[in-house]
């Protein structure tokens, strides 16, 4: 063989080695996920279901047992002659992923197991106007606290839920109106600080993944999500996949213009949904009205201390200004839900966030407005469920960690 031929043969051998390794990874993921979804499967059943040889299944299961990802069920002594098949069970506690929810007001982090089970959460407040460097340092501190609580945990990496537009998979915060950030390479900067793999996703998309896997949208294929908290965000899952859009900005409904020429939004535009319906927007509108001399019980609250909780209390007590602001928020959110339904034709719309959680009958009011605005021509429109998040504030943490877990379960073997 000449030199070029030898080089060619070498490349072929290398390619065979790589494809052999990929094949092994794919088979391993196939077997692990089968055991994860169907408890109590025997090796023989796995071989039948996957079409892999019993020897290959045996080798893969031995590796999964050695890595503690799978347990054998206790054999029941029956007195029968011969080998009885032993059932296998997935062990969700074998690995953990960090889930980190970064909000304008606070950072929350917890470990999440492979089954979506969340451990105790720790929080740190974010000082007003914090820049990326401070937020990254606080996040790294919080992660050290969470890890110190769980010595011996095998941590796969960290998933981060971040407000605003985020590029995937690069994890660059392209534009976060509420933090005032542009083009911050958050993933790279946090990886440097943590020495761990990091994945970063928009916060509402992270929460949507968690609701889709474990919460309110479980069992659906196409669902829309609206989060109403400090800001307003949206997400859509289409045919079982998160739809991010070309620039990571799909379903950013908080910045849909709803009143041209309306109040200035943090994004630089005027009259966005967020300036009327978010916690920060409603407080800003209340302060404007108070400054303009509107009669309200809220005059008794020092301006600097006025927050959404006080606004909600005043609305519950029948204060005219607070009621008016809450009703406008409900109307515009109803319009947003109707537009989501008409744009994406989902099976379900899930509403989450601190404003929805605090808002008494807000969900019912939003639904009433949605019914007024939604297109009635399609037979399906009447049957779109508008529902509250099941996982609540935990959804962002579980969903962020879920990004890391999904990668691990797709290829549970570190590339050699
Ligand atoms: Zn805006």
Question: Could you please describe the fold and organization of this structure?
Answer:
This protein is of the alpha/beta class and 416 residues long. Helix content is 43%, strand content 18%. Strands 5-4-3-6-10 form a five-stranded mixed β-sheet, with helices on both faces. The radius of gyration is 25 Å and the shape is elongated. The chain starts with a helix and ends in a 6-residue tail after the last helix. 41% of the residues are buried. The site of zinc ion has 7 residues, from loops.
Blueprint of the fold:
Layout: H1 3-37, H2 43-50, H3 54-66, E1 70-72, E2 88-90, E3 96-102, E4 106-113, E5 122-125, H4 132-149, E6 155-162, E7 165-166, E8 173-176, E9 181-184, H5 186-194, E10 198-202, H6 203-214, E11 223-228, E12 232-238, E13 241-243, H7 274-277, H8 279-291, H9 308-316, H10 320-344, E14 348-352, H11 354-358, H12 362-373, E15 385-388, H13 394-410
Parallel strand pairs: 3-6, 6-10, 11-14, 14-15
Antiparallel strand pairs: 1-2, 3-4, 4-5, 7-8, 8-9, 11-12, 12-13
The structure holds zinc ion.
Zinc ion (ZN) binds at residues 177, 255, 265, 267, 269, 272, 274.
